[in-house]
């Protein structure tokens, strides 16, 4: 057990180191001069040389990486050219909005997607099964920004049924104190119910949109896992003992796939937490995805590399968590 745990931790450490190395090299390989992004194209040569010296860009690539690694171990991701603040502070400021959006979408996707996948497998070949498969196929085929623009055009512009972009209407901005950084939660904690319903209305459309794309993956994978489980001999034995259909379906078959499904859910959630870049950009949602997009447009490499590194660390962390949960739920996993 100790040897296996040590091996997994070593693997995680090597993965994180590889992520840091690749992120650093991509930042140096991109055709963007970080010095020019800071001082501008018309800066005097002596100013450019001084800034390059201060950033350590005059040193070898190995020395630059060592300096980058030392700063990283101290939690220093550099300073953002766009905001003038440390990148770490920017990420802490923008990430709660992404967490709010991703968590809402994930809860909706799990509540709808898992039952759809289970019932589709139980009724394989039926009309219901075919409908679920078509819904999943469309969700995985249609570009997210296309559906986002269609939803805004129909529900906001034409029908005036949904609010516009952003987290809140202008009249509510600045009224809710920052407690968690998630406006819906903060408004509820502060008892400002008008602001709460307004924030919830703004959250609904992007959350439902992301939930649809997530549940299409979850429903398809759940159906696949369930079909495999329902063909097992233990299911035939359970039915032969006279157990009820729902008990066989949910307790025996679904219980058998819970470990594998946990990995799918964790990676899906990680994909949402990466910022849902296109969705946040279309809906002007002030999260990590929008921050990353604006940083790219402003050639703010410290912000781009910092956000990319955080996204990668989230993937690694959630993957490790899913792996641990799968081992607890399924004793057959070594």
Give an account of the 3D structure.
By secondary structure, the chain is mainly α. The protein has 2 domains: 2-73, no CATH class; 87-329, Orthogonal Bundle (MetI-like fold), CATH 1.10.3720.10. It is built from 14 helices and no strands. It starts with a helix and ends in a 5-residue tail after the last helix. The mean pLDDT is 83.
Topology:
Elements: H1 2-29, H2 34-39, H3 45-54, H4 61-73, H5 87-122, H6 127-141, H7 144-158, H8 183-190, H9 193-230, H10 233-240, H11 245-273, H12 277-282, H13 288-297, H14 301-329
Summarize the structure.
Keywords: Cell membrane, Membrane, Transmembrane, Transmembrane helix, Transport. This protein is mainly α and 334 residues long. It has helices spanning 2-29, 34-39, 45-54, 61-73, 87-122, 127-141, 144-158, 183-190, 193-230, 233-240, 245-273, 277-282, 288-297, 301-329.
CATH architecture of the largest domain: Orthogonal Bundle
Radius of gyration, in Å, reads 24 Å
Count of helical regions = 14
* Count of strand segments: 0
The major β-sheet equals: none
Helix content: over 70%
User: Domains counted in the coordinates: how many?
Assistant: 2
Dominant shape? globular
Distance N terminus to C terminus?
Answer: 10 Å
Output mean pLDDT.
83
Uncertain segments of ≥5 residues (pLDDT<50)? none
Sheet-strand content, in percent, reads: under 5%
Which fold does the CATH topology of the largest domain refer to? MetI-like fold
Please write the CATH class name of the largest domain. Mainly Alpha
- Within CATH, the superfamily of the largest domain carries the name MetI-like
Structural class: mainly alpha
Order of helices and strands: HHHHHHHHHHHHHH
Pfam families: BPD_transp_1 (PF00528), BPD_transp_1_N (PF19300)
Keywords: Cell membrane, Membrane, Transmembrane, Transmembrane helix, Transport
Organism: Pseudaminobacter salicylatoxidans
InterPro entries: BPD_transp_1_N, MetI-like, MetI-like_sf
């Amino acid at each position: 057990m100790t040897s296996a745990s040590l091996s997994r931790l070593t693997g995680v450490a090597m993965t994180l180191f590889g992520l840091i190395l690749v992120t650093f090299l991509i930042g140096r390989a991109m055709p963007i001069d970080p010095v020019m992004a800071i001082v501008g194209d018309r800066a005097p040569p002596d100013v450019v040389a001084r800034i390059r010296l201060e950033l350590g860009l005059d040193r070898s690539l190995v020395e630059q990486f060592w300096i980058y690694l030392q700063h990283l171990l101290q939690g220093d991701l550099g300073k953002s050219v766009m905001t003038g603040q440390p990148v770490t502070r920017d990420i802490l400021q923008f990430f709660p909005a992404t967490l709010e959006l991703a968590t809402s979408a994930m809860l909706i996707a799990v509540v709808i997607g898992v039952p759809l996948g289970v019932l589709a497998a139980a009724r394989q070949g039926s009309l219901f099964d075919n409908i679920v498969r078509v819904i999943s196929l469309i969700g995985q085929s249609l570009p997210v920004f296309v559906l986002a623009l269609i939803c805004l055009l129909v529900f906001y512009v034409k029908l005036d049924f949904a609010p516009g972009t952003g987290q809140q209407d202008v009249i509510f901005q600045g009224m809710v104190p920052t407690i968690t950084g998630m406006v819906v939660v903060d408004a509820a904690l502060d008892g400002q119910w008008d602001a709460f319903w307004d924030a919830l209305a703004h959250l609904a459309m992007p959350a439902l949109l992301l939930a649809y794309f997530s549940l299409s993956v979850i429903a398809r994978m759940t159906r696949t896992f369930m079909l495999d489980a329902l063909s097992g001999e233990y299911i035939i034995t359970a039915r032969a003992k006279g157990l009820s259909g729902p008990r066989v379906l949910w307790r025996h078959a679904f219980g058998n796939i819970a470990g594998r499904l946990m990995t799918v859910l964790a990676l899906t959630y990680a994909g949402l937490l990466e910022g849902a870049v296109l969705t946040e950009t279309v809906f002007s949602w002030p999260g990590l995805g929008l921050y990353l997009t604006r940083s790219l447009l402003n050639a703010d490499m410290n912000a781009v590399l910092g956000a990319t590194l955080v996204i990668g660390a989230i993937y690694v962390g959630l993957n490790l968590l899913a792996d641990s949960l799968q081992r607890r739920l399924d004793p057959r996993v070594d």
